[in-house]
Amino acid sequence: METLTNEQLRIVLVVYSSAILPLVLIPILHIKRLIPSWVLRVYIASFIICALGWELWFNYGIVQGDSVEIRRALQLNQRIPLHLNWILNSLADAGAICCGGLLLCWLSFGRDPQLFSSWNTSVFVFLFGFFIGQNMLVEMFLYHDQLEVGKQLSWAPLSPLGSLWNPVLFAFQDRTITLQGQIPWVIMTPLFYLMLIKHSGRD
């Protein structure tokens, strides 16, 4: 195998840890009844939405896109195989991001057990800011080489504009934030919040 650079090693560690830690912790917390039972349902549903909504499409470049193997370095392809990559990313989306955002929101709003029982604009804005904020950091500092200008992402159900219209929103230290990279989480935010309202009301 090719030797990893320090930055590539950081990427590998972040990808695996952000996928595996929630995968282990959430079921354990569920079994021990330390979290509401609906959290596990939300975690599983979020994994499915993220996988089918964009991760599979971006991973394989299904519609007018480049596969992740083309968009990243050989060293990363060796450590994060193509057919595992979309699973790890979807697990990280569902666990570290969706459930992590859920936890931060609950803590920030006073640990109210009824917080997600009905629509609250402040909660929605919090989740939207968290999802978009983390995604910008990911695009700039984790996957910038895979998402930079010139690397074609596939059309996806939750990225309906595809690469046909994908303007650069802004750049920071030669790293770009594009519209296509942000759209999935723009659409995911209301889907996720409505899912929280639906499932939290069942317990």
Fraction of helical residues? 55-70%
Range of strand content: under 5%
In which order are the strands of the major sheet placed?
Answer: 1-2
Compute the number of structural domains: 1
The low-confidence parts are none
Bulk shape: globular
Mean pLDDT across residues? 94
Q: Biggest sheet: strands, sense, closure?
A: 2 strands, antiparallel
Radius of gyration: 17 Å
Give the N-terminus to C-terminus distance in angstroms: 49 Å
> Helix tally?
8
Summing up helix and strand content along with how strands pair, one would put the structural category as mainly alpha
**Order of secondary-structure elements:** HHHHHHHEEH
Please give the number of β-strands: 2
How would you describe this structure to a colleague?
With 203 residues, this protein is mainly alpha-helical. The protein has one domain (6-200). The chain is built from 8 helices and 2 strands; from the N terminus they run H-H-H-H-H-H-H-E-E-H. It has helices at residues 6-31, 37-60, 68-71, 74-79, 82-108, 121-141, 144-147, 179-200, and strands at 168-172, 175-178. A two-stranded antiparallel sheet has the order 1-2. Helix 6 (121-141) packs antiparallel against helix 8 (179-200). The longest helix is centred in the middle third of the chain and has 27 residues, at 82-108. The chain is globular. The relative contact order is 0.15. The mean pLDDT is 94.
